[in-house]
Amino acid sequence: MPRPTRVALLITLPLVLVSFYFFYSIELHVLLPTLTDASTRHRVVTGLSSILAGKYRAVHHSLHEYDHYTTEPYTGDRQAFTRHIVAVGDLHGDLPNAKRVLKFSGVTDAYGNWTGDVDFFVQTGDIIDRGDDTIALFFLMDRLRAQAHAVGGTVLSHLGNHEWMNAIGDWRYVYPTEIKTFGSIAARQKMISTGRIGRSWAGNYTTASRLPLHPSIGPPNTPYPPKSMKLHYHKQSDDLAIHHYYDHDKPLSHSALSFVHGGLSPTYKGLTPFPTKINQLSESLLQKLQHRVQPPPHPPNSYPGLPVGTTPEEAALYDANGPLWYRGWAMDSEKKVCAQVDKVLAQTGTRRMIMGHTPDFKNIVARCNGKIIIIDTGISHAYGGVLSALSIHYTLTPIGDDSDQRWIEKEVVSAIYADRQEVLIRDTREVVGDFSL
User: Fold this and answer.
1) Which segments in the chain show pLDDT lower than 70?
2) Judgement on whether residues 173 and 91 belong to the same structural domain of the protein
3) Is 101 exposed, middle or buried (CB count within 10 Å of its CB: 0-12, 13-18, 19+)?
4) How far is 96 from 170, CA to CA, in rounded Å?
5) Half-sphere exposure (Cβ direction) of 317: Cα atoms closer than 13 Å
6) Can you give the pTM of this predicted structure?
7) Rounded to whole angstroms, what are the CA distances from 314 to 13, 50, 324, 393?
8) 346 and 212 in one domain?
9) CA dihedral 361, 366, 367, 373 (to 10 degrees)
10) Which of 93, 146, 424, 425 is the most buried (most CB within 10 A)?
11) What are the pLDDT digits (tens) for 163-202?
């Protein structure tokens, strides 16, 4: 090697190493904690360390598996599609904290009005009980629903187990100060049965939702299996293999999310068609509760129970294994839930199940690579948990020649807190089909 070349290398090499260390430090201590989740941070740090050990190629490949998609030029006529969803868990009578969450998650502006920055806002139930702001919270949801609808957005609302408890007459978690906001026990009974709140429950709230990430598989609550599949008309079977629920000619068939308050138990018999079956039972049971003579509330009176004429299927909707009370996805071991979740996702035509009900006061919980997400973090001052919201950014982007009908489907799921945002899941895959709108 000529002397000038050796001198240049001796000068350049220290500069390269110093520069690398500088960017390594920035990545490790500044960018990663704010932009990525813990598992991704671990992979990146491991990757950066491996560079020093001469392992760059293998690590680079694992970290940038889909880079060739984003660099592939596209000049066709197909349009990319985006959808932004925000979901919030239990609010339990706390209007100030609810407003804070709605604002920092981008659902509302500084004046409490719909921003238009979100396509769907989902609330998973338990607005009532443990606080005094019942009326104000339900009126806020109705106002946001109307504002969203006016500009093409959607609010999806769910009845939690506490809404159902109140409809039954089980007022164990109702504060005396909250009853005063209605004026009297009788006025409260009327408001949540045939009055304004009760009518909104009957007209605007469901017990379960299936939210497609792309409109090619239908609007919200399009049933799965669809009527085009024979399974739609078959009785739910625990023995049917998972692959029967997938149509390989429709790669977006399960590009959807399920929302429910408690959880979709793997042994619940009313799953399919989803969410139609659950919501039909919910509608019929709620009507019976709201239009019976309202019993004196418990306590101090005896527990009134479900109304006369309740069917076994309606009773199963409300029991511990039903979608309002089930806690298995949050409480059972990782091994057990990860072994069970794929069958339920296959049956319901979804890729993730999102629920509230079982709080973790520190953070939103994602299990089984994000197939299970629990978003109740005890937002209400009754619990003192962290304020949080779940954000889902979905994109379907065309690549290649239009004749090939190739697309890149990307989904980024993040937990949003008052002071930070954490990526929980980042999924990307290539799909082929005619998904143009």
Assistant:
1) 1-71, 230-239
2) yes
3) buried
4) 26
5) 27
6) 0.84
7) 73, 58, 12, 35
8) yes
9) 90
10) 93
11) 999 999 999 999 999 999 999 999 999 999 999 999 999 9
Q: Would 71 be classed as within a structural domain?
A: no
DSSP annotation string for 322-380: STTT--HHHHS-HHHHHHHHHHHHHHHT-SEEEE-SS--SS--EEETTTTEEE-----S
- Residues 36 and 99 grouped into a single domain: no
Cβ–Cβ under 8 Å, residues 360 and 417: no
Provide the Cα torsion 15, 17, 22, 25; round to 10°: -170
Alpha-carbon distance 336 to 415, whole Å?
Answer: 24
Q: Are 32 and 44 in contact (CB under 8 A)?
A: yes
What DSSP state is assigned to residue 5?
H
Question: What are the CA-CA distances from residue 46 to residues 19, 24, 167, 428 (Å)?
Answer: 18, 11, 54, 22
The pLDDT assigned to 149 comes to 98
Output the CA angle 367-368-372, nearest 5 degrees: 55
User: How buried is 316 (Cβ within 10 angstroms: 0-12 exposed, 13-18 middle, 19+ buried)?
Assistant: middle
Burial group, residue 157, by CB count within 10 angstroms (0-12, 13-18, 19+): buried
Total structural domains within the chain: 2
Q: How far apart are CA 42 and CA 36, in angstroms?
A: 10
User: Which of 409, 388, 340 is CA-nearest to residue 98?
Assistant: 388
CA angle 112, 115, 117 (to 5 degrees): 145
Q: What range does the domain containing 24 cover?
A: 3-65
Residue showing tokens 């790669």: 251
**Residue 325 to residue 317: CA distance in whole angstroms:** 9
With tokens 């294994």, the residue in question is: 321
The HSE-up count of residue 388 (CA atoms within 13 Å, CB side) is 24
Cβ-count burial of 2 within 10 angstroms (0-12 exposed, 13-18 middle, 19+ buried)? exposed
Residue where a domain terminates, one of 65, 97, 116: 65
pLDDT, position 244: 73
The predicted structure's pLDDT at residue 50: 36
Q: Which residues pair with 119 in a beta bridge?
A: none
Q: Indicate whether 76 belongs to any domain.
A: no
Residue 72 in domain: no
Q: What does the pLDDT read at residue 45?
A: 38
Q: How far apart are the C-alpha atoms of 51 and 48, rounded to whole Å? A: 5
Q: How far apart are CA 355 and CA 329, in angstroms?
A: 9
Nearest Cα to Cα of residue 221 among 182, 258, 186: 258
Tokens of 402: 């239009």
